[in-house]
C-alpha cells in the first residue's frame, strides 16, 4: 500500500474515468479527454476485460484507468466508496502515483455532484489503504508501504470533495489506530495521552478528570468499573470551539471507552474475552470525529466525552450485589459486572448534562451482544425519541454508508430496569429485549429536555473478514457519521 495519499497537482497523472454497464459508445463528456489521451479510453472500453461491472478495471498504457460503474440505476455513493477501496491496490501494483479524477463525468447527477463523488471515492481509497502494521517485528512477512499517491482533478468541486474525503478517512484511521492498540499499551492513561496529543496537533481543548477527581465528583459508575485494575479510570473531554459557532447549538458526543473488558467477576468464558480491546470503539469513534470536526473547521461548538476504564478482577473490583451511587444520585444494584459499559456511560451522560449543558447528545458504544444478534454486522442499533435529531442522524448515516436502524424505547422498557434493592439494576433479570435494556438504563442519566441518540455499534465496530474498505480489525464506524451530523447541526 501507499505510505500516504494526499491531494495535489501531480505532473503526469493517470486519468481516472468510469463507464456503466452496457456502454457501447463513448459518452460526449469523455470525448475530449479521450482525444487528449490518444484514444486510450476507447481502447480500454473495448478490452475483453471490461464489461462495465463494478469490479471491472482496465489500465491502458500508463495514463488511463477505466473503472466499471455497474448498472446506472443501482449506483450510489457507498458503491463509489467501495470502488475507491478496490482501486487503491490496483494503483499501487501498477506503480501509478498520480491521478486526475474525472469519474464524476459519467456518474448520474441524482447520485451526487462532483463534490460528493470525490469525497466518497477518496474516503474509500484512504480507508482501504490502512493496515495494522505498527506492531510488526523482525519476523514480519508484510511488505512495507511504499511511495505516495497524489490525487487531483481539473474540476474544483471534485478537488474539494477529494480533500474532505481524505480528512474524514484519515480521522477514521486515527480512531482505528487507537482501537487496534493492544490493552497492554492502550490503558486509560495512554488514551488520555493520545487525546492530549491530538488536541495539541488539531487545535482542540482537552481536559482529563483523573481517578481521584472522579471519586470526589461522585462518579460511582466510572470509579467502580475501573477500580479493580492497576490502570485506574479517567474521563477525557475534548472541545472544538470555533470563533464564530452557529448560535444556540452545543453538540455533545459521548463514547464508551473500555480499554479492556474481562467481564469482571461475571467473567467472560469460552474465549469470548478475545477481542475485548475493541470495547473502546465507541470512544475511538468520538476521538476520530473530534479530529475530523476540527480539521474541517466546522462552525459548531462540539464536545467529545470519553469515560475510560479497564474492567478487571482483583480484591478491589466491584461485585454482583454491590449497590453504587452514580454522579446524578441514581443508585444501581449490580447484577452483572459484565454490563459495565452502561455504568461508565451513565456517569458521563449525567456529567455532560450538568456541566456542559448541551443542546443535543449522541452516545456511541459497543454496548450489547443482543444488538449483534438482532442486527448483525449490517447496521448499528439506534434509539432516539427526538424527531429532528433522529432525522439528522439517519440522513448522515445514509450519506456516509454507516447504516443505523431505529429500535423502540418505551416507558415499559424503562420500568423493566427498576431494581429490587436500588433505583435501577444494571442488567435485567432476563435477556428479554437485551439491546433495549442498555438504552433504557442510559435514559435515566440524560435530562428529559435534552434530545438524545444512543448508538449501539457492537456489530459494526470491527470486522473478522476483510472487505473492500477494511482489513480485519476495527472499522472506525461512527467517525464519519458523527462528523456529518455535526456538519448538519444548525443548518
Amino acid at each position: 500500500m501507499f505510505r500516504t495519499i494526499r491531494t495535489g497537482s501531480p505532473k503526469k497523472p493517470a486519468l481516472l474515468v468510469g463507464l456503466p454497464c452496457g456502454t457501447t459508445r463513448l459518452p460526449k463528456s469523455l470525448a475530449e479527454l479521450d482525444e487528449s489521451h490518444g484514444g486510450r479510453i476507447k481502447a480500454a472500453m473495448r478490452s475483453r476485460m471490461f464489461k462495465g461491472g463494478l469490479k471491472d478495471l482496465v489500465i491502458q498504457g500508463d495514463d488511463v484507468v477505466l473503472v466499471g460503474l455497474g448498472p446506472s440505476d443501482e449506483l450510489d455513493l457507498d458503491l463509489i466508496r467501495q470502488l475507491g477501496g478496490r482501486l487503491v491496490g490496483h494503483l499501487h501494483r501498477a506503480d501509478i502515483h498520480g491521478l486526475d479524477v474525472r469519474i464524476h463525468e459519467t456518474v448520474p447527477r441524482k447520485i451526487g455532484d462532483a463534490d460528493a463523488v470525490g469525497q466518497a471515492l477518496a474516503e474509500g481509497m484512504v480507508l482501504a489503504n490502512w493496515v495494522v502494521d505498527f506492531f510488526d517485528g523482525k519476523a514480519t512477512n508484510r511488505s512495507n508501504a511504499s511511495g505516495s499517491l497524489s490525487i487531483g482533478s481539473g474540476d474544483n468541486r471534485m478537488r474539494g470533495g477529494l480533500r474532505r474525503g481524505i480528512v474524514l478517512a484519515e480521522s477514521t484511521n486515527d480512531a482505528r489506530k487507537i482501537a487496534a492498540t493492544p490493552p497492554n499499551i492502550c490503558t486509560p492513561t495512554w488514551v488520555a495521552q493520545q487525546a492530549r496529543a491530538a488536541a495539541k496537533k488539531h487545535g482542540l481543548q482537552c481536559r482529563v478528570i483523573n481517578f481521584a477527581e472522579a471519586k470526589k465528583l461522585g462518579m460511582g459508575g466510572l470509579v467502580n468499573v475501573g477500580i479493580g485494575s492497576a490502570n485506574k479510570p479517567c474521563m477525557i473531554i475534548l472541545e472544538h470551539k470555533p470563533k464564530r459557532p452557529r448560535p444556540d447549538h452545543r453538540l455533545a458526543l459521548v463514547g464508551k471507552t473500555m480499554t479492556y473488558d474481562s467481564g469482571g467477576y461475571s467473567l467472560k468464558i469460552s474465549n469470548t474475552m478475545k477481542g475485548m480491546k475493541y470495547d473502546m470503539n465507541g470512544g475511538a469513534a468520538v476521538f476520530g470525529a473530534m479530529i475530523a470536526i476540527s480539521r474541517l473547521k466546522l462552525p459548531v461548538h462540539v464536545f467529545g466525552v470519553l469515560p475510560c476504564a479497564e474492567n478487571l478482577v482483583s480484591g478491589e473490583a466491584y461485585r454482583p450485589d454491590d449497590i453504587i451511587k452514580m454522579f446524578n444520585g441514581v443508585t444501581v444494584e449490580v447484577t452483572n459486572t459484565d454490563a459495565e459499559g452502561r455504568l461508565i456511560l451513565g456517569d458521563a451522560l449525567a456529567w455532560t448534562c450538568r456541566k456542559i449543558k448541551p443542546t443535543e447528545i449522541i452516545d456511541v458504544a459497543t454496548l450489547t451482544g443482543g444488538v449483534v444478534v438482532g442486527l448483525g454486522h449490517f447496521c448499528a442499533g439506534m434509539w432516539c425519541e427526538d424527531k429532528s435529531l433522529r432525522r439528522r442522524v439517519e440522513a448522515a448515516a445514509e450519506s456516509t454508508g454507516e447504516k443505523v436502524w431505529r429500535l423502540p424505547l418505551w416507558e415499559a422498557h424503562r420500568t423493566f430496569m427498576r431494581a429490587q434493592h436500588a433505583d435501577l439494576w444494571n442488567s435485567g433479570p432476563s435477556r428479554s429485549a437485551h439491546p433495549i435494556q442498555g438504552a433504557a438504563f442510559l435514559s435515566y442519566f440524560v435530562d428529559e429536555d435534552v434530545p438524545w441518540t444512543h448508538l449501539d455499534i457492537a456489530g459494526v465496530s470491527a470486522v473478522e473478514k476483510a472487505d473492500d474498505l477494511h482489513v480485519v480489525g476495527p472499522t472506525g464506524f461512527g467517525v464519519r457519521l458523527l462528523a456529518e451530523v455535526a456538519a448538519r447541526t444548525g443548518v
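The chain has 15 helices and 20 strands. The longest helix spans residues 156-180.
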